[in-house]
Amino acid sequence: MKLTMLAITLTALVAASNTAATAETSSPVCTPAQAGLDSVLLDHALNLLSVNGSETVQVYRDGCQVGKGVYDPVLGDLAGNNWSQTKTVTALLTGRAVTLGKLQVSDPIGKYLPPGLGDEAHRAITIEHLLTQTSGVHMNWSRELNPEMPDRIAEFMSLPIDHEPGTYFRYDQTGPTVLAYVVEQAVGEDLQEFAQREFFTPLGIPRDKWFWLRDRAGHTEGWAHLFLPGDQFRRFGELFTNDGVVAGKRLISSGYLRKLHTGTKANPAYGYLTWVNSGAYWVNASGFAEATNEGHMISSAPPDMYFSAGFHGQFVFVLPKLHMVVTRSSGSLMWTPSRTDVGDLTTAATSSQPGRIEYEFFKLIMHAAGQPAGDYVAPTPTSVDVGLIVNPEDNLAALQLGPGAPEGCTFAGCGSDPSTTEAVRFLQEVQAAEWAGFTSVPDSVMELARKSPRFFLRVLDGWEQTAQIMGKRLPDTVPNLMRSLQASVDTVPAIR
Length: 496
Known about the structure:
Beta-lactamase; 19 helices; 3-stranded antiparallel β-sheet
């Protein structure tokens, strides 16, 4: 084992020697055996997650790619919406600004806001409160997810403060955008320009690989709408496993990263806009109702694991003691992951919340690494908290009407010169991204099968595992058909 790890390390060092300023464009590829993993169990894990809503699935150990999903050859380079995984990127950009000495997490946001923006109480909220989702600011989903939000910063300043900052966890979308705005003010330039020069370029992500939507006032949306291909997710994992150092350059301080994956009293499973598996309990993202769940979020995975998570299942999982990174994307074609573990519709609808499929996936990963896996613990069933969605004052404010609406804002925009530029840009870019998703799909299943080795057998394996988890069995005709299709594909040369 020591010799194989040495071989992997030497391979990575040789590859790294070809660059000085940025990360490698591609990672070394190793066999599971070279990385000390059982290839059969790893294959089962990849197949299971692939058929349950994934566009890409990739597993890395010690910097080497040891496996990828069924659809990766076709969908790996497609820029999809990262949804709330964007929050973790916002936290990393904040960490870069902290490392550069541009701000401190203990600073009140008012230190960086223009004079007159927000009252004293809102300006006293700290950067760390925003990072940990403990600002205490009121949250209602009809306002948070308003696609026509004219100005998310003005929106935040208009919301009442329901809890003392730092004491109560409430997952929200507006706070991370305020954080992005504060970082922008602290560094003195557009956040996206800062992000490319100080973060994406060192990681090896070129500008044409991503785009990031803004609200109608031009503020970068810190909570979602970063469009980035699944093939690029690994770069965040590499940053974490290398403790914030890329190609010999420290991007983010070690101390900041420790806080990023350390929970708080308000939620032991949430650090700096990043989920943590070590908590004795975890508070959910309150999609329909707040719930406290006992145990680790994914009980089959190591307690030291932490991860970014986005709607429809965007994930970068970091397993420090096992030297592993697992990435998953599913943001372009909007496939919804299977929710075989839930007893209520509200949990099923929260498709960014890990469930039974993720449990079974990591159970296989742990066994492939020769490690034990904990018993399954189902999420706590919840009922709908109507107040998080339906509230007359909030619902009117979402339309920029009534006493709760931001001052000076109308449905057309905020200020004396409302702009529709960003709204038009939003529609254009999302339309382009979704069109790219549809056009990237092969003309036929057989074409896809020729691009993805053992396609039908891998899909069959994933289906059989999913059926077994659900206590069911595939009809006998299905395995026979899939094997027959694979045999017909094997007679045709693979498409490169």
